[in-house]
Design goal:
It contains 10 helices and 10 strands. With 264 residues, the chain is α/β, with parallel strands linked by helices.
Length: 264
Amino acid sequence: MSTHALTDPLVIAGKTYASRLLTGTGKYKDFEETRLATEAAGAEIVTVAIRRTNLGQSPNEPNLLDALPPDRFTILPNTAGCYTAEDAVRTCRLARELLDGHALIKLEVLGDQKTLYPDVVQTLKAAETLVADGFQVMVYTSDDPILAKRLEEIGCVAVMPLAAPIGSGLGIQNKWSLLEIVDNARVPVIVDAGVGTASDATIAMELGCDGVLMNTAIAGARDPLLMASAMKKAVQAGREAFLAGRIPRKRYASASSPVDGLIG
């Protein structure tokens, strides 16, 4: 990890991370490919679908924690596949039991099986319950700035607006909404869903987002390990460009030095 990344850490729920790229653990051919891609991405936070992944529930099956041990990675259980607040809360409590009191979770309550858009009413309801129950909630949401602020006010430790539908690879579809969320947030803003390639991740970071979470863009690539490496560089480049400050956009260039006094 670069020196710059270490001096500009991502802070979530009081813990610092050098990497601003978060990755999923699904859709790989096996846990070994998951491990290799995670390492190539430089990710420190990895999200895990509790309903689909063995974290010890099935003692006779391969355990993801053997490939991605919690002493090296922050495991972020998620509620993928939940369509009601009650199911999401129940899944988070199961994750807390499996992971010895682990409080950091990713909340997602879906409203539509085709697009996997969030059900914002159920998301708000689940977030209120989980925060009151002592969970540190990172929440998947729409790109609605008002909703994002409300989730922050409830006590979520990070808001995670979609850039486009989950798994679509369409990239940033409404940068103005993301800018509004970033401008008003006092917690990290992590783009979650819709990234397809490295330039999408860079754009998200150039907008001022604090990080990017992705799974399909890496796991579904022809060469997942190479794409993971590309995404790592893209996130770093986008963050540095945001901090550096781009030049203003103009219709045409202006002279870099005055022409008055030139000979001839």
